[in-house]
Every structure is written in structure tokens, then in C-alpha cells.
Amino acid sequence: MKVNDLITLNNATNYLLLEEIFHENEKYFFCVKTDKEKNKPINEYAFFKEESINNKESIKIIKDNSLIEVLYNIILKNFINS
After folding, report:
1. pLDDT tens column, 25-74
2. Which helix (H) or strand (E) element contains residue 19?
3. At residue 30, what are phi and psi to the nearest 5 degrees?
């Protein structure tokens, strides 16, 4: 998976991968939910962790608020420094 990929979750929800974040040797993505019909971004964001299960890429939604804050701060720092 890479930035700008459009992914579909098992529940048929689509997300556009906006930012790639590396933290503690793990790969995360900051994503925006998209409208099912038009694939246009809507105002709903999430962080996902990329995982490999049986050599297949998969993602897991991040629900830990402290980790979300860390990832958000990494994005903010990168944005300010660019």
C-alpha cells in the first residue's frame, strides 16, 4: 500500500491513503473516508496500521488515542518542516 491508494475495507467502506508514517519500526497511514458512489473525500479521518498476515498486506484501524496523538504529531511536525 502507498499514499494515494484507494482501499476498501471488509465493510465496503473506502479510504484514501493521505500520509505514510513510520513509528517504532511500524508503518501507519493517515486516511480520509470517501463517498461510496463518487469516491470524493468526506470529513471523516482515521489512522491505520499496515500489517502482513500470511504474506498478504492488511490494515488495522488504530483506536488507541495516545497512539493517534503521537501519529498526528509526527504528521504535524513533518508538515511544518516541509
Report:
1. 999 999 999 988 777 889 999 999 999 888 888 899 999 999 999 999 99
2. strand 14-23
3. -100, 125
